Amino acid sequence: MDTDPVLDTWHYVLAKYAKAMCALERELGDKHDLGPSEFEVLDRMVNHDSKLRVQVLCGEVHLSQSALSRVIARLEKAGLVERGVCPDDRRGVFVHITDKGRALHAEALPTHRAVLAEIFSDSLVS
Amino acid sequence: MDTDPVLDTWHYVLAKYAKAMCALERELGDKHDLGPSEFEVLDRMVNHDSKLRVQVLCGEVHLSQSALSRVIARLEKAGLVERGVCPDDRRGVFVHITDKGRALHAEALPTHRAVLAEIFSDSLVS
DNA sequence: CAACATTACATGCATCCGCATCTAATGCAA
DNA sequence: TTGCATTAGATGCGGATGCATGTAATGTTG
After folding, report:
1. Residue pair A79/A98 in contact by the 8 Å Cβ criterion
2. pTM higher than 0.90 for the full model?
3. What is the rounded average pLDDT of the residues B64-81?
4. CA B99 – CA B103 distance, rounded (Å)
5. What is d(CA A37, CA A61) in angstroms, rounded to the nearest whole number?
6. DSSP letter, residue B83
7. Which of B49, B50, B1, B19 is nearest to B122 (CA)?
8. What would the pLDDT profile of B78-119 be if each residue is shown by its tens digit?
9. B10 contact residues in A (CB cutoff 8 A)
10. How far is the CA of A45 from the C1' of D14 (A)?
């Protein structure tokens, strides 16, 4: 429709983002009681095996610092992660995923991948 | 980093969306007092020259029906669009952009395009 | 050490969104 | 026409977000 490649790319991003976020919200929410942000944070944490500074997490996730703080609070309330003070810098907070958190992530991962595979099935390069 | 093309695409979409939306919010907001949703609706409306059913708009925009209703309400309060009842179907609502709306859109368009050009400058196909 | 700037994270607040629901108008069947 | 289902759009509500700010710990400068 458009002839401007920048605009085309933007519209592609917009459409895929909307569709994927909507589907993720529905599927992850219905099947595992997780929001997309919760899953994203959990997903980052399983890939860092040790404890993780909130600060570091903040740089890896597409969330503001305040939003991340609240996502972690929700995850903690659900027993999926635990917070602990940093010994060397007592302003800092360590977060580590619990066994329950790992289990839920493992359970939700196929759902997550399935949704994305469905939505990006037309984007395969060959 | 990843080897899964679906995941790579998803991460690309996520990163570009976050960066673009954030930049659009800041630039459009600071310079023209417009949110990205407001601009998107305005942008659709200038490309339909006549009056437009809200219903039609709803299918073209990445917003829920309720969100669209409120965006239109904000635009109307700002004097950028006007609502009118549909003569043939009195449940329906026509919206048309005002001169002020056209002017603001024309003013904001370069800002919008500049932000996107900046963010997608690395995505040029050659 | 004292005073001040900075950093890490938490939180009050306003805003925006989607879902569910409401109202009013239309369509359709008996 | 009457009664009921459907549709268009508005709105109450709860939840999530970002900005600005608060609190506490750390660094820094004199």
Report:
1. yes
2. yes
3. 97
4. 6
5. 9
6. E
7. B19
8. 999 999 999 999 999 999 999 999 999 999 999 999 999 999
9. 20, 116, 120
10. 28
> CB neighbours (10 Å) of residue B59?
8
Placement of tokens 């859109």 in the chain: B105
The number of CA neighbours under 13 Å toward the Cβ of A50 is 2
* Type of residue found at A116: L
Determine the distance in angstroms separating the CA of B50 from the nearest CA of chain A, rounded to an integer: 20
**Whole-number Å distance, CA A116 to C1' C9?**
33
Whether residue A6 and residue B123 make contact (CB cut-off 8 A), yes or no, is yes
A23 lies within 8 A of chain B by CB: no
Q: Of B18, B123, B124, which has the smallest distance from its Cβ to A62's Cβ?
A: B18
Domains of chain B: 5-121 (1.10.10.10)
Nearest residue, CB atoms, A116 vs list B6, B20, B120: B6
Nearest CB to B123; choose among A9, A14, A117: A9
Long-range contacts of A56-64 (CB under 8 A, 24+ apart): A57/A95, A61/A37, A62/B14, A62/B15, A62/B18, A63/A37
Burial class (CB in 10 A: 0-12, 13-18, 19+), B82: middle
